[in-house]
Amino acid sequence: MHEIVIARVAERHWHAVEDDRVVGRGDTSHRPDGRTFLSIDAWHDAVFDRLADAMLVDLPRPLYTVVDEPDVDLTSCWQRAGFTTRRREWEYVLPTDPRVTGLGSVLSPEGVTTVPVGAAREDPLREVYDAIRAEVDATVGWESMPVEVPVRPDGTPLLLDPSKYAVAVRADRYVGLVRVTGRVALQPRIGLLAVRSDQRRRGIARSLLAHVLGALHHSGVETASAEVNESNEAAMALFEGIGARRVNSNLELVLR
């Protein structure tokens, strides 16, 4: 066996080289919430361990990574590096057929209208997004949300894309939103479903979900996916109440 050489080849990239071959890669990505996530792809555990050691020396803590919970070998590799479980997310598959979900008869609450995906205006969309984010930050923390906000190469968030959002409106004010991402024609993803705190428990989230799932069903899409933090009992109850199935789980690990 030849010597394994670890080199930091760019600001966010490391290579493990053996006999002039790249046998492992390590990368970092910076989330909009400021956290740094690691990923390592290695041919065998010894290479993984060498890459992890080199990366952890170079990077400030805390550091994070995400693994599929059934992948016990990869989870074990990160645990050897000192990472521990921070939270679990359940992956759901949601039916779209209102005859299955029971959402066909769901109407928007009185005084609330729904703006379909792609028709929201950017400024009020940003306003409600920022308001919801501040409310979540003040309680459980925004990092607890399974959100995917596209970022620039430097890690800063791009402007919100109205083509991916439907919103709930009350008195000309956006009070809730739902984001639909992924390959919508094949397996769309419900990436974020949230309502402003002063408008909760009125059925707005349920009506938004009914709207987007009904629209997907009308376009010929049979299922969508979603991820829910296991501590979010309200979201799990909402999804499971419409026939959603748990199909997988992932773990967010942290090294402090």
From TrEMBL:
Q: What is this protein called?
A: Ribosomal-protein-alanine N-acetyltransferase
Q: Gene3D superfamilies given for it?
A: 3.40.630.30
**Is tRNA processing tagged as a keyword?**
no
Print the keywords alphabetically.
Acyltransferase, Transferase
Q: Does the keyword Transferase apply?
A: yes
| Pfam families documented for this protein | Acetyltransf_10
Q: Which PANTHER family match?
A: AMINOALKYLPHOSPHONATE N-ACETYLTRANSFERASE-RELATED-RELATED
